[in-house]
Amino acid sequence: MAPSAAPTAAPVLPSRGRLRPLGLDDVRVTGGFWAERQSVNAAATLEHIAYWLEREGWIRNFDLVATGGPADERRGREFSDSEVYKFLEATAWEIGRTGDPEWESRFRAIVQRVARAQDTDGYLNTRFGHAGQPPRWSDLQWGHELYCVGHLLQAAVARVRTRPGADDGLLAVACRAADNICDTFGRDGIDGLCGHPEIETALVEFGRATGERRYLAQAALFVERRGHGRLGDVEWGREYFQDETPVRQATVLRGHAVRANYLAAGAVDVATETDDPGLLKAVRDQWRNTVARRTYVTGGQGSRHQDEAFGEDWVLPADRAYSETCAGVGSVMLAWRLLLASGDSGYADLVERTLFNVVSTSPGADGRQFFYTNTLHRRELGTVPDTDRPSIRAAAAQRAPWFEVSCCPTNVARTLASFGAYVASTDDEGLQIHQYVPGTIGYRPADGAERRVTVSTGYPADGQIRIRVEDADAHPWTLSVRVPGWAGEGATLTVDGEVRPVRPGYAVERRTWRGGDEVVLDLPMAPRFSYPDDRIDATRGCVAVERGPLVFAVESVDLAGGGNVDELRVDTGRPPTLAGGRVQVHCRRLDPPDRDWPYDGQGPTPAAVPSGDLVEVPLIPYHAWANRGPSTMRVWLPTI
Amino acid sequence: MAPSAAPTAAPVLPSRGRLRPLGLDDVRVTGGFWAERQSVNAAATLEHIAYWLEREGWIRNFDLVATGGPADERRGREFSDSEVYKFLEATAWEIGRTGDPEWESRFRAIVQRVARAQDTDGYLNTRFGHAGQPPRWSDLQWGHELYCVGHLLQAAVARVRTRPGADDGLLAVACRAADNICDTFGRDGIDGLCGHPEIETALVEFGRATGERRYLAQAALFVERRGHGRLGDVEWGREYFQDETPVRQATVLRGHAVRANYLAAGAVDVATETDDPGLLKAVRDQWRNTVARRTYVTGGQGSRHQDEAFGEDWVLPADRAYSETCAGVGSVMLAWRLLLASGDSGYADLVERTLFNVVSTSPGADGRQFFYTNTLHRRELGTVPDTDRPSIRAAAAQRAPWFEVSCCPTNVARTLASFGAYVASTDDEGLQIHQYVPGTIGYRPADGAERRVTVSTGYPADGQIRIRVEDADAHPWTLSVRVPGWAGEGATLTVDGEVRPVRPGYAVERRTWRGGDEVVLDLPMAPRFSYPDDRIDATRGCVAVERGPLVFAVESVDLAGGGNVDELRVDTGRPPTLAGGRVQVHCRRLDPPDRDWPYDGQGPTPAAVPSGDLVEVPLIPYHAWANRGPSTMRVWLPTI
């Protein structure tokens, strides 16, 4: 990687690999779907998180440790420190993006409170290690101490990359904490690891940000230690925290879906920095099998409520989909790292799918309520979360303002604030655009003049993406634009008035660009049916409706006469249509007889065949559901 | 009910209602499916349970309380006392059935140890209320104190009904415990109830057994108290313990499936004894809706692992079926009570289905290992439980010898030992036979001579049931034989050589019987396909195979060449066959292509259509699966 004076403002900056990411300073998002979400994130979500962190006492926990306050006044779960750190990370990206002075001063104030809680040897945790508390590292299985430090390091990385040399003290706190971990868990230290992966990816990135190789070595050690049963048994089996099989030997992601993705992200980081193709291949294979057999059509991951875990292959029930928001964030982290390492467009496809259909589904339109899990089917209106206290239920009928385990709001906030860093990358040949958003992308290659492009698009409402090269260049370079897998055979690229079909992957145009040259990518935006693999038992005989990168859903509030979403049967002989900007399908209504016993020898009887008129049923983008009061909803629609 | 000198040896003896049960002394099971299970229960399971109860210290807990031993030596969960009581109940039925002197003396020894732990005021629990323990009744939500006493009372009922006047002391212990509860939780006492229903049905039956109305009144009070939120909130909502809606207002069973069934059973008992048709109707409606929409084809109940709970209507995933063994036992308890109250054959149908396909599935062939949950689909071989320690996992790949929550083995044992009491009943008109088992049934009506019948059958392997009336009678009486719902139009009844078709329900023959008269019921035993209601998303496009009352399954150990059960697609154009005593279906194998993403616009493509030869695939009765080493298994088979 070419050295540069100012660091790239991005969460992941590998020192080698196929692609080099651009950062928040290089990619300016000026409008459209993601700009709107970033603006709600800045205007509402960050403030909302700050309010709840104070209200629940999770920041005050640091004050308590700093002042030697009574241990029994500590509030929140054992990992509540991490929410403060993720909030700091989100705020750091936001300050980097907008330079907001108000957030700058609030950021500094919280960092000070965190810093005061740090022990002299660098140990930092509000739940362990002080008077009246369990000893440090006494519960590696569930204590989350290393996990919390991981998020502290990621916050410091965000700060160093956006405000290098800032005198807020966060970098020093993070260095001491990272050193303490290396001192404690190095080859001569405790032969342990954390029940919740996160420290691995964080240590590598912190090593990249600081140039300190020791952190990378410690991350590699943690990755290698996992999979040998060191963490012991838990009710759901050792695969819950991926401790039953070493990373190099595993063939698929399994167990707790957030843990699995964070660990795999860390393993990619280690593989990249240590130039370990075997480790990288192991994770790529795991990812491929996971996406092929264990991922929802939304990109969501994790089928099981009980242990927040992946199911076995093909176990993807819509109605008990866990699809935790944080697993979506973790999946974006993993896929982005694999994309940078390999340059394969499939990774960017999953990033797009997951951002649009999981990460952006979690927050409500007001940015002050969140889905923790993202079910694909709600059958009953269910209970509405109390808006004035943390929800104890992961699966509420509507979004909740806060959770006792409130990992999702902060994870969404840090992802949205750093969204620009997932848009584009460069290599020695030129520029790659992975995600389409109105704005500008500009960077200066190591050996050349600045290259700037302007992207104009109404995507994802519209499928045309116009990319205008702003600067003339004496030398040729390659512009690569991602053609999403969902586009099939339907995309075209227009350059200089010449239209050519382009297949999924990267459509490339190499030339000596003149200022004002334009490349137009046209993606096919007719709504379409998607059929599940026949091995997915839960959705056999159903279709989903997609348009562009968006998955659609039918929501009961859109049905005339308070209809039941479960009674609809789609006529797949009639393709979905666009009418007045809305996607529609044609359905009949099932009118089943009441029976005493739901199993009989009649086969699909005439009584079970839907009758009544064919009606047009409007759908909405899945991410937009549950913003209009209690409702029922389906993504997968049974066919006639 | 007509008074009789010796009590009927049955767990449920309502003082009014449509039918009067016969007991273990009236119904002698002499061979066949259930005799074999009772014999394994007696020869292996009871001994196995006794071993584990001692080994885990759950009986010793009583010694600890009796001797004032240190509280921290107590072992097991808060409800471990109940396992000792259920074991006593099972043993009492077994002694009643066989008169085994060895079990008699062991029974008495355990009763003595229990009795010594009782406080002077009747309070009895090893987890609360003594030095170093939490106070009595300090955790009604989770403490299970009332639940445990409920099982004590049921053990005492079994003993009083099988050995009236025995001097073992159990009745006195139970009376003191029941009185203590009435003193504590009466109208002027604690306005509370137990997080786990069980005390309600137990108090009613104990009242029936002792003639003490006070116990009935207390049971009625507990039933009425539930549903008003007295227990407070839990993570899974108040419906977890049925405390969100009063019993009279609820329309379906919901929440924790064992709790729901036990509560409903108690409500039926209260309704029957207090002649409360409104309460009875409420439970009958709940049962009907639950069976129509929330019950597996096996009779299993409970769809969710997380909270061991019913799902919403139509949520019946095969692969995450919880179908807890104890919920099956509870469902049999409830349906039996509703049958006695109403005389409707549908209740006996569910008793039969659940006994054959849930209760008899739990224990392995050797009677020393048990399924806690009874999944309908196992996709992976999974882990095999350690045979030398309690399993902490409810969903093991094979049966486990014991569990940390070991409610199922003792529940199976008490049900099998008392099986004879679920076979037949009487009313003023005559005799009703509900379950078919080789043996004799004899009773003396209040106003007449003894009536004895002999039942000969190979059921469920064979569909012919021969019922021979042994005694001549001067007066006519009615013999009613149940025609199961699954028999459809295919059953016939032969009396005196005359064959007539009989429909599901009770086929009745009223006559003045001569000794040697024979009635022959012929049930249609061709294996058959059963199709699920189209509203059950999880099994859309699948069939199950049934024969008689048995649900069948395909198990991987029966597939040639180590086949994958998930690749089979059944040709429903060819009915299942019987070949060499085995049920078979015709299948092709799915040969799906490897794809990077499991959703596409192609619809059911040629590639997804199964190919290859049509092969005959053998099935086994579901209850018999997992007795031949690790395997995968399916009940619901996708169709071609």
TrEMBL record, chains A, B:
Residues 528-638 form the Non-reducing end beta-L-arabinofuranosidase-like GH127 C-terminal domain. Residues 431-525 form the Non-reducing end beta-L-arabinofuranosidase-like GH127 middle domain. It holds the Pfam family Beta-AFase-like_GH127_cat. InterPro entries: 6-hairpin_glycosidase_sf, Beta-AFase-like, Beta-AFase-like_GH127_C, Beta-AFase-like_GH127_cat, Beta-AFase-like_GH127_middle. It comes from the Bacteria. Residues 26-420 form the Non-reducing end beta-L-arabinofuranosidase-like GH127 catalytic domain. SUPFAM superfamilies: Six-hairpin glycosidases. PANTHER family: DUF1680 DOMAIN PROTEIN (AFU_ORTHOLOGUE AFUA_1G08910). This is Glycoside hydrolase family 127 protein.
